[in-house]
Amino acid sequence: MWSGQISDHGFLADGRSAALVDRSGSVNWWCPGRYDAPSVFARLLGDHAGHWSIRPVADFTVERRYLDDSLVLRTVFRTDEGEVALTDALALEPGARGHDLGLHSPQVLVRSVRGLSGEVPMRMHYRPCFEYGRTAAYLVERDGALEAIAGASRLTLRGSVRLSCGAGDATATFTAHAGTVHNFSLGYAPTYDSPPPDVPDADQTIADTLEGWRSWVREHDYHGPYAAQVRRSALVVQGMTYRPSGAVVASATTSLPEKIGGDRNYDYRYVWVRDFSLTLRALWRSACFDEVQRQFAWLSRAMGRVDDQPVPIMYGVQGERDLTEHRLDQLGGYRDSTPVMIGNDAWRQRQTDIFGEALDAAWLMRDRLEPFDPEIRHLLRLLANEAMRDWRLPDAGMWEERGIEHHHVSSKVQCWVALDRAVRFGDRLGSPQEVARWAATRDEVRAAVLARGWNEHLGAYTGVFDSDELDASVLVMPLVGFLPADDPRMLSTVRAVERQLSHDGLLRRWDGDPAGFVICSFWLVGCLALAGERDRAHQLFGALAARVNDLGLYAEQIDPLTGEQLGNFPQAFSHIGLINAAGILTDLEQDPALHGSPPAHFTPLRS
Prior knowledge:
It contains 15 helices and 28 strands. By secondary structure, it is an alpha+beta fold. The chain has two domains: 6-217, Beta-galactosidase, Chain A, domain 5 (Distorted Sandwich); 220-590, Alpha/alpha barrel (Glycosyltransferase), CATH 1.50.10.10. β10 (138-142) and β11 (145-150) form a beta hairpin. The two termini are 49 Å apart. The relative contact order is 0.11.
């Protein structure tokens, strides 16, 4: 029985899919083809749902790292008999460099075992299980390779050692001597509409993939505080980008729980409009305009013309809208946390904050969007008009409450953002009459938030109108320019939120949230910095940066008492929070006179 932790895993990506490898050399998650495709390895969510392990036979200790600035993982096992290195990578297409990474990935997982010292007996266990463990594969040796076929999927495994086939699995034992190399390559292809996967040489593939990631990093040189952390987080965000469309998924996994044994286990392998502005800010900060432009083009195509229907709040990586949720009852869940879900019924929700995220993103990159393409101009006008129409309605909020709607302060603030940015665009976006209506409604929204969002008894803005419950979502107010961070009421709100919801630097979303929510904690960094408390902001940033796992990866949440990472992994939102907090600290370092709110148009952290 597998008994590891979420944070035990390293993250591999190839621009189409992601794999997770634990500290003992076991691939416990891979959905080849695209991030939300059915799995071939899913032991993360059930013991019998497939894995591929390579590890020493005897007891061992582990040290691991990514090679340079890449997503190529090197794990060193140390035993009494000697040392051995395992190098893992999801292959990039041969010769791909810079912005072309991942466009045509071959869908190959390569693993190389190199003896470093002594003689280390090793064991490999390969057990593919397709469609989230529903289907055990039929294994057959053909042309010097081992094929696994079941339903719509086919895997081809080639290795430099002899494999012994069993009922649905294969094993091998071999000895890693100092200087020897044993390579394995596993290729994926659909069963019927393509030839068997081409499985390239592992050494060459690893070298080429490593150089591909290095070339991307060379084009994205960073300046400012915390450059190493920003680079790692940028690579994670890049690794969760579906390169054919440019869409960034929220996470690589589904159903990893917010609370062990809890039932808030959702599929995050999709793209949220809610995250859009923050994602673009992070890409702008840490990457370059190519990724930003690709992201906005994706959103425009995904939304299309939506005059006669509500704007969806999330999409599949190619713009799919129907993401209907299904239970996978054959899986027992991570540490018995059920249900295990694919799909996400949040796609049916109303979340009025999305208007602000999209228009803020457009304002952020206005110099690159203008003159507007007619379709983009139509989309932005539509979103501004929907914000003007719908801001009075209750919604599910950014935390996606199910079964109930409220008047969430953060949603109203984002409606204000949508109208404010539309007004700033002025006649470039709408007629004088439209701009005047947007301005009038913007002021109406602001007045309502200031009046009904404020709780005099608590001395804070609350999560919902006319409420007495604090919520960390209100920390976005100064970050989007709604209120300066040093406004007396905003300062009082930050104090109240930190006092009631923070524990050891980790900020929960609300009272009763089971763990600290990483991006909220980075929002607090930004608020403190903009309020003039820069030493405290740097101190908190450092404490949060130390909460990553040994490879620099965050899940969605962290238990402040145990340090255990919880929720889907790795979580783009968490890494985006780090990048944007570092960006605010950089702005303040470059312009010490800046205070209150972020600059309206900042300089990317790159050369």
